[in-house]
Amino acid sequence: MAPTVENEWKKGSAELLILSLLENQPRHGYDIAGLIETRSKGALHFHVASLYPLLYRLEKRGWIQGRWVEKPNQRRRRYYRLTAEGQRVLGLQRRKWQEFAGAVSRVAGVQNA
Amino acid sequence: MPEWKQEIAKRLSAASLRPEREAEIIEELSIHLQDRYDQLLSDGTADEEACRQVLAELDSTDLQAEMRDTESTVAQDSVPAGAAPTGQWFSDLLQDLRYAGRVLRKSPGFTAVAALTLALGIGANTAVFTIVNTLLLNPLPVEKISELVAINTTQAKLTTQSGELQLVSFLNLKEFQERTQSFNSLAAHSNPMAITMTDTAQPRRIFVEVVTVNYFDTLGIHPFMGRFFLSSEDTTPGAAPVVVLGYAAWQGRFGGAPDILGRTIKLNNTPFTIIGVGPKGFKGIYAIFGPDVWVPSMMSEQIFPAQQAKALSDRAIPLFTGIGRLRPGLTLAQARAEFNILAAALEKEYPNTNQDQAIALRPLAEAAYGPERQGLLVGGSLLMGIVGLVLLIACSNVANLLLSRAAVRRQEIAVRMALGAGRIRLIRQLLTESILLGLLGGVLGTLFGYGGCQFLWSFRPAEFAQNFADLRINASMFIFAFAVSILTGLLFGIVPALRTSRASVSEVLKEETRSVGRSRGRISLANTLLAGQVALSLVLLVVAALFLRSIQREYTIDPGFETNHLALFMIYPGQAGYDRTRTEQFYKQARERIASVPGITSLSWASNLPLWGRKETGVAIEGQAQREKSRAISAVVNTIDLNYFSTLGIPFLEGRDFTQDDRDISSPVAIINDTLAAKYWPNQNPLGKRLRLPRGKEFLQVLGVVRTANYQTLGEAPQSCVYIPLRQNYSDAMILYVRTERDPSSTLAAVQDEIHNLDPGLAVEDIRTGTKVIEQALWGAKIGVALLGVFGLLALGLASVGLYGIMAYSVHQRRREIGVRMALGAGQGDVSLFILRQGMTVVLSGVALGAGLAFLLGRALSRFLYGVSPSDPVSLAAASLVLLLVAFTACYLPARSASRVDPLVALRES
After folding, report:
1. Residue B78's pLDDT band (boundaries 50, 70, 90)?
2. Is residue B766 domain-shared with residue B786, that is, in the same domain?
3. Containing structural domain, residue A71
4. In whole angstroms, what is the distance from residue B55 CA to residue A48 CA?
5. Does the structure show a pLDDT above 70 at B507?
6. Best label site of B441, B487, B539, B889, fewest CB within 10 Å?
7. Is residue A113 included in any domain, yes or no?
8. Is the pLDDT reported for residue B817 higher than 50?
9. Residue B236: which domain range?
10. Do B63 and A49 touch (CB under 8 A)?
11. Which residue in B297, B257, B296 sits closest to B277, CA to CA?
12. Closest by CA position to B886, among listed B800, B804, B790
């Protein structure tokens, strides 16, 4: 049971995670996947097959924008940055997440750390 | 290490992404996989294990499905939660439009024919709308026209508000201005009058309006350049010779010269200074015909002809129409009440001139068309109705075309339904197509319409073209064309769309296209549309024929004078600054010199233009009691010189013509027509009887009786007429009538030369032959008939093309059936007859329906017909015959091709 619930939660929060990571600087896909894994201390893990469709979807919505960048001595990579619209959505989703998390906590009797 | 790109490509192969997008995704993902692989290796994972792990991650989700989903997601997902979903409808529309564009491009022949058909219909509508809009809907560029009121007098209290309106004398207007409480300001203007303008060498005839100084302020308009009149310019008679040019006159007659202000022009030989140019598009408040210049009322004496020169001081000379701006909050009814009281007061104070005078107030918007309003309204709505019918025919034609195509598209539609397209969605798609087609037709139609109304407008008499209202080609024309296009698209698209989308999926997909029986319903709908078209075309043709016959009759009307070999010249010696002695001398000299021009048999002077006579009310008959004003005798009064009746060919019935001896010093005389004689001296000898003219002081003795002619309009009811001799009644505005031996056009130049020799400063601009006078009188009617004819033929053309199309299509559909018939022994003639009979049944039912409609419409129009009954059998028969002939041809061609069907070929096709 546990993995399914986790999957659902992961899906729900994935957009928020990606938008947050792009808030301060543009990043490429591998970078994003790595950061999610390290910052969640391995709790959250995005594979290539689920990460990129998500990125493309966000790009289509106009929340993020990808651009091929060539840096000396590095592979050509596609960097994503947050658009103004994405910035707005990020704010919205953060607030919603907080409300949601708060509500869950209050109901489930979980104390915030 | 595996080839990442290949691995990814393998997994995306069935997602059918766009190739360039796929390549991009493969590149990005392969980099990710390579990074991951490198990292696993650097973490110490064995090569094989690293490969396996990377590929497992790639396969952790169904990449192909995810990508297909993501990439096919349209922008609709881009709406964040909580926002209104705006994208769906619009993106669907775009999709529909793209698809519709593709469909139309794919069959250019159909698109061209349909668009052209619609363009003709929409073009006709746009042209007529533009003209109606110019003349009727949006007449004057003045401020708040609803507050403006036109003020006239009517003679008898019985006269209805829209009855015979008369002008107001200047002195009465002053009373109105001083006494009224209803109007914020009250101005006045004269009718446009022809005067002579000399600015360079050649004298020219232009039109002037005499106005009070507050005229422009009352209307709320501002000069384009310079200024309008100052109140100081309208206090002393003759003191301020200033003139305001109309914008069109400035452009047309002065080439838009920028230094026009301050220039001097001579009007009727008096120098006037140009002080301003009126606003663009303003040509006076008479919506159809306007003046070139305006002068202040204190200059009346310099402008009006001698008989009216005392207009400022004589209460009996009415030359003005008042224009008032209502005080805010006051209604027209309140103003009317005030003016009723005012009229009564004036009647008491000035019984000689104001007896029984009522004052008529009308909204300016209504008054702006003068007496033509009624005719314009009827003509305008008739034309709108007719072009509406033409458009209906065009629509039903295109609907038929669409129905034919629907048969071809049944399979396409069925496939789309099988794939899950809803009926509503399909109808929407089909309607988008027809609206796009309508818009295409609309763009073309606007061009046609623009050309059409330019063409119509080019029929304005050229010399006064700039005095006529300008065509209003503006946004409202485009909005109209756009709205009509959309509406048209819906109209012709809705039935085919409903019908096409009703196709049953399974049936159509099973069915083979050539099936005959199933398209029966389609054919019968098409036949109904066709019969309707035929009916409408017949209606138009019959109406056109009725008016054509009517105008033919009008041409044969005897106007009461000989129009052949007659020419007339308008010369106003008074406008060249002549005094009475010189004018009289001029009349005499001109008569003598022109009489010697070879080819001229007789000539005379007269004050009235043929068919432009003005009636005067209040003729008194000696020995008969003073009549109540409501039954006052009115008569056309014409001042004439010697030989008038022989020159015009008006026969004498009794008595004698004027002679040299009927002069100032002899007793005053008159000649009357037989209508007047019969009415007021029935069964008596009118010779020697006496009558008095409305403004005359003395009784005139009747010298002779002549036959009644037409004085105001062709074919009018007989009117009374009094002729008075020029020698006893001086006038400085006369018209020269000349009778010639042969075609007068050859002598026109010689006469002009003679007048030029007498005085090069005299303008002789308006020269007409007698036949042209008649043509001008019938000008409006002729234009109307021409339009009706053109639209009728257009309708006939459209209907016959539609008929041919549907017959040809039906023959093609029934080749198999025809083949079977022929195989079973039917001859070629039988087959032709069979098809012909079918087509002509539709046509005949259309003709029957159309004849009924035409009869009803003809009755509604009967009062505009002259000498033709609305059920005139000749018109009906002629129109039906033309229609049947054309329809027969349209049916015969397909019938002939049907008879040539080779049964073997036709049957083998199945």
Report:
1. very low
2. no
3. 2-107
4. 10
5. no
6. B889
7. no
8. yes
9. 145-368
10. yes
11. B257
12. B800
Partner A contacted by B35 (CB < 8 A):
yes
Burial class (CB in 10 A: 0-12, 13-18, 19+), B287: buried
| Domain membership flag for residue B82 | no
Facing A52 at nearest CB: one of B28, B75, B80: B28
> Do B58 and A49 lie within an 8 Å CB cutoff?
yes
**Residue A65 counted as domain residue:** yes
**Residues paired with B670 in a beta bridge:** B702
Looking at the domain assignment, is residue A30 inside a domain? yes
Q: Which residues on chain A are in Cβ contact (under 8 Å) with B65?
A: none
Give the C-alpha separation, B261 to B252, whole Å: 16
Return the DSSP state at B563: -
Mean pLDDT of B822-846: 85
**Residues B299 and B184 placed together within one structural domain of the fold:** yes
Among A46, A48, A79, pick the best mutation site for testing chain B contact (most B Cβ within 10 A).
A48
Judged by DSSP in three states, B671 sits in strand
**Is residue A112 a part of any domain in this protein?**
no
User: pLDDT-derived band of residue B159, with 50, 70 and 90 as boundaries?
Assistant: very low
Final residue of a structural domain among B368, B383, B408: B368
As given in the structure block, the two tokens for residue B226 are: 């310079």
Of B132-141, B162-171, B433-442, B852-861, highest mean pLDDT = B433-442
Q: Is B639 left (phi over 0), alpha (psi -120 to 50) or beta?
A: beta
Task: Give the CATH number of the domain where residue A30 resides.
Answer: 1.10.10.10
Calpha distance B625→B623 (Å, rounded): 7
Confidence (pLDDT) at B382: 80
Whether B125 shows a pLDDT value over 70: the answer reads: yes
Q: If you write DSSP's letter for every residue of B235-288 in order, what string do you get?
A: SSTTS--EEEE-HHHHHHHHTT-TT-TT-EEEETTEEEEEEEEPPTT---SSSS
Does one domain contain both B545 and B577? Answer: no
- A-B contacts (CB, under 8 Å): 68
Whether residue B792 lies inside any domain: the answer is yes
User: Hey, how many other C-beta atoms are within 10 angstroms of the C-beta on B746?
Assistant: 11
CB atoms within 10 A of CB B723: 25
Assess whether pLDDT exceeds 60 at residue A98.
yes
Q: Are residues B527 and B594 in the same domain?
A: no
Closest CA in chain A for residue B70: A57
Please give the pLDDT value at position B707.
93
Instruction: Write down the ipTM of this complex.
Output: 0.89
Query: For residue B219, what are the CA distances in angstroms to B145, B214, B223, B476?
Result: 8, 9, 12, 24
Q: Which residue numbers of A have CB closer than 8 Å to B's CBs?
A: 28-30, 33, 47-53, 56-57, 60-62, 75-78, 89, 92
Closest approach of A93 to chain B, Cα-based (Å): 10
Residue B204 CB partners (closer than 8 Å, separation 6+): B196, B197, B198, B253, B763, B765
- Please judge whether B31 and A77 are an interchain contact, meaning their C-beta atoms are less than 8 angstroms apart: yes
Residues B666, B785 within the same domain: no
Per the structure, the count of domains in chain A is 1
Lowest mean pLDDT among B386-395, B499-508, B808-817: B499-508
Residue B80 lies in a domain: no
Identify the H or E element spanning B845.
Answer: helix B828-860
CA distance B55 to B24: 19
When divided into structural domains, chain B yields a total of 4
pTM over 0.80: no
Which of B739, B770, B801 is the last residue before a domain boundary?
B770
Looking at the fold, whether B392 and B465 belong to one and the same domain comes out as yes
> Is B108 inside any structural domain?
no
Q: DSSP readout, B365-434?
A: HHHTTGGGHHHHHHHHHHHHHHHHHHHHHHHHHHHHHHHHHHHHHHHHHHHHHHTT--HHHHHHHHHHHH
